[in-house]
Amino acid sequence: MTLAPRILVSFWAGLKVARFQRRLREAGHGVAAQQAAYRHLMGKIAGTALGRQQGIEANLDYETFRTAQPLVELHHFAPFVQRMLEGEADVLWPGRCRFFAETAGTTTGTPQRLPVTDEMLAHYRHGIGAAVLSYAARVGHAGVFLGRHLHAGASTALRPEGEAFLGNFDAITALSLSSWAEANLHSPPPALARLSDGPEKAARIAERMRSQDVTLLGGTPAAIRLLADAVRAHGSRGKVRLTSLQARWPNLECFLHTGAPLGLLAAELQALLGPQVNFHEVYAAAEGWFAVQDGDAALGLRLLADAGIFFEFLPLRDLHEDLPLYLSRRCLPLAEVRPGVDYVLVVTTPSGLLRCVVGDVVRFLSVDPPRLQFAGRTRLRLANFGEQVTERELTDALLAVCARQDWTAVSFHVAPLFTRPPPAPHGGHEWWIELRPGTVKTPTGPVLADALDAALAERNPQYAALRKSRAMEPPQVRLVMPGTFDQWAGTHRPGSDAGRMARCRPDREVADQLAALTRFHNAPAAASSLFR
What's the Cα-to-Cα distance from 523 to each of 402, 404, 430, 436, 443, rounded to whole Å? Predict the structure, then answer.
């Protein structure tokens, strides 16, 4: 339970939730908040080394900014960040910076360092508050504030580098907490939170938290699996077995998850957490907190227009990987976006990142209020034949096919399969799929291929048109043995798990690695023996 009296916490939380809901209603489209964020950021960046180099002025109008300022990726800021690490002031943001975040490097494989200024910490704190308050608002009560908020995942330790300190997303999130939240809500204790992720940490957390009242749980799917195993081991006695984390913590009501949608992992996580635990999604990364769920997940996530970041959106159809200057004027502010269009996310932040292309693709489901969904990553999409297919569309197609046939997909990957190489490529998609054994209906590669072809055509008109005109060939499906994707992760991504792999790539790197690990199954006889 919380250190403060429950009645006071309940009253305080009720007021905070009511104010949050009122602020959301007043924000509407969020355009005014975005205009204010733009003016504030220009005023701050104008006096920095980056601002002087880029010709930023405090009163720079947006149309001039949109036309003249180039779009850049994170690596563009590396020399500036190094100067900040060495103690130089006024480089990307006024003053000196002591804290730096490291990105996960999911897409490129190379983590980048980002400054975390005081205003960026305030932005993180705003995002965390919005996430929990939006959950309380959508369920209609503030019970989530009456227990502990347990984080299971990566170490929150900060490591020194000169006079600066570096940490991952989890570490910066913990650093940004208010003293009240840290004392009354956040768990586990700092000494445990700083341990490296793994079975030992999970076991110690399970023992330390066994008698605590946990209402919210956050962490990666892999960390939740470890915690569930540890809680079962510590909490089961004789024939009495704990079936879920909710059996250990009866008031556990919220699972807060970040990053890409859970997709294939949702059913497994629900079983581990408990049937009454609500999933609550936030869209956040080291670069910032972008959006939070404020209603049914199908409605999308509410853009945090008033949290200090200035957002721009480049239509995905216009993207060129070299980011030529003409793309700058094709970016749209929030006031000009439209539902149903795929956009590349571009941010200017309180850490001094100026027109940074995050590498994510988003799609607005509504604009008043602005709600979006994460659709995929710019470098991890299929466009080899002009189809422009995102990983979300691939995941949704596979989930829909499996739901109709009562199959359960464990993992998958999609790659281009060329029958004619570039510069005039021809071919189709190759699906590598691992299904859970024990299905009633026996799946085969051709059956799955036809179903996936139709499901993807329903979701992507461009793919449908290319298939109808025969500019793309039918997909091919490779059914693999159980455990293949875990074996791939152990071989090619040590320390990671198959759940974090790229669901698609425009090259054949992962597909060829899978081919080297396993034989595939297309014949009915082979599939029958595999899934019987």
Answer: 19, 22, 16, 18, 10
Helix (H, G, I), strand (E, B) or coil at 348: strand
What pLDDT, on the 0 to 100 scale, is given for residue 3?
Answer: 55
Tens-place pLDDT, residues 295-314? 998 999 999 999 999 999 99
In sequence order, which ranges of 46-149 are alpha helices (DSSP H)?
Answer: 49-54, 62-68, 78-85, 118-139
Of 379, 397, 395, the closest CA to residue 464 belongs to 397
Distant-in-sequence, close-in-space partners of 300: CB < 8 Å, separation ≥ 6: 291, 364, 365, 366, 371, 372, 373
- Whether residue 282 contacts residue 293, with contact meaning beta carbons closer than 8 Å, is answered with yes
Q: Please count the helices (runs of H) and the strands (runs of E) in the chain.
A: 19, 18
Q: Is the pLDDT confidence value at 153 over 60?
A: yes
**pTM of the full structure:** 0.89
Residues with Cβ within 8 Å of 185's Cβ and at least 6 positions away in sequence, in order, are: 2, 145, 148, 149
Q: What phi and psi values does residue 51 have, to the nearest 5 degrees?
A: -60, -45
Sheet with 214-219: strands ordered across = 186-187, 148-152, 214-219, 254-257, 278-285, 288-293, 301-303, 370-377, 356-367, 342-348, 310-315
Burial grade of 353 (CB within 10 A; 0-12, 13-18, 19 or more):
buried
CA angle 507, 465, 448 (to 5 degrees): 60
- Of 501 and 255, which is predicted with more confidence? 255
